[in-house]
Design a protein that fits this description.
single chain, 370 residues, alpha+beta, 5-stranded antiparallel β-sheet, 4-stranded parallel β-sheet, 20% strand, PIF1 protein
Length: 370
């Protein structure tokens, strides 16, 4: 198995953490029961092979050494100063040459992705289409401000459909939902947007020579990837899959929509541009050049919270070289120096390392060593 310097499942606790349940909760929450059932099963596994080599950074000893220090909580002021030499001004950011960005903030992702689509499309001389998802309110009095705030709230882990989808033919996209699992059209999968099928009920209005806005989603979007290139689905171009719009209910029980006085149904594509990803969805991906935002995902009195350790490590370890890492803003000292893993995760990792050492010893004792 690979290392566990990654995020736990969304809204769940890592299986490495085996804390006693809080007996004051009567009855226990289902999530607590499921977690401890999973922990019991997890601890039945005793044969462990732990892979710890940093393959992305195998050709950059300097980045490998930095990641090793971060993993062990031994970051230095020199490391921090080195990272802060790579800050890029907002006006200097261009995505047409393969740059990708990672941020813990959905709001930053939404804004940067819109800018990225426009810049990428104009560099590649592609037409830009803006699809505003349809929003249908059940009842209640609506003000223009409520409508604007609802549309402006994009996709997140709870809502798979963005309020507004910027599109240009050929751009990279990521799917937000498991749609065709057998075809690997799943949440977080990368694709190239081949084309859209326009809905005649949502005609386009020209905002500029190269920009058209539609007040409603297309009938579908055709996507292509290495995994789909051998597909031949009837009535579709070879190598493509079709994603159709879906509906999602928005209401005030979602913390991002507390301002809603009535339920609203949003209908649009569960697809977003892939120029900018959250730190969570960046897991497992590799970039030659990447723009990072090393900060927390909450703001108090205008000040960002401390960068989560897992976000720090995941972001820094996505790139193949230290030279390819750029920063959206300066990394504060408390975001980096002394930032380490939760002690419970460290204990869980140590247990795995001990099991891996024992597995190796047993393997070698049986005469299978080289």
């Amino acid at each position: 198995m690979g290392d566990f310097y990654q995020f736990a499942p969304v809204r769940e606790t890592s299986l490495l953490i085996n804390r006693p349940p809080d007996r004051t909760q009567t009855p226990l929450r289902q999530a607590t029961i499921s977690h401890h059932s999973g922990c019991r099963l997890w601890h039945l596994f005793k044969t462990v092979v732990l892979l710890e080599d940093q393959l992305r950074a195998r050709n950059d000893p300097q980045l490998r050494a930095l990641l090793d220090r971060v993993r062990n909580g031994r970051q230095t002021q020199q490391d921090l100063d080195l990272l802060n030499e790579n800050i890029v001004g907002r006006s200097q950011i261009t995505f047409h040459d393969g740059l990708r960005a990672i941020t813990p903030l959905n709001r930053t992702r939404w804004a940067l992705n819109m800018e990225a689509v426009v810049g990428w499309a104009r560099f590649n001389k592609r037409h830009i289409r803006i699809f505003v998802s349809t929003h249908t309110w059940r009842n209640g009095t609506l003000s223009p401000n409520i409508v604007a705030r609802t549309i402006g709230q994009g996709d997140d882990s709870a809502c798979k459909v963005p309020g507004v989808f910027f599109y240009a033919q050929g751009m990279p996209v990521v799917v937000n939902k498991n749609i065709y699992t057998g075809l690997k059209v799943v949440n977080g999968a990368d694709f190239t947007a081949v084309d859209v099928i326009l809905d005649p009920n949502h005609p386009g209005y020209h905002l500029a020579d190269d920009v058209t806005i539609h007040f409603g989603p297309p009938l579908g979007i055709l996507l292509q990837s290495e995994e789909t290139k051998a597909l031949a689905i009837p009535s579709l171009p070879v190598g493509t899959v079709l994603i159709r719009p879906m509906s999602h209910t928005l209401d005030s029980t979602n913390s991002h929509f507390k301002f809603l006085s009535a339920r609203c149904t949003r209908r649009g594509l569960p697809v977003v541009p892939a120029f900018v990803l959250t730190d969570y969805k960046a897991q497992g991906k590799t970039f030659v050049e990447v723009l990072l935002e090393l900060r927390g995902n909450r703001v108090t009195n205008g000040e960002p919270s401390r960068c989560d350790f897992t976000s720090l490590y995941v972001q820094l370890s996505r790139c193949t070289s230290l030279r390819g890492i750029k920063l959206l803003g300066p990394v504060r000292q408390h975001d980096f120096i002394g930032n380490g893993l939760d002690p419970a995760i460290i204990d869980g990792m140590q247990r795995l390392k001990n099991l891996a050492a024992e597995t190796r010893r047993l393997y070698e004792d049986q005469g299978f060593e080289k």
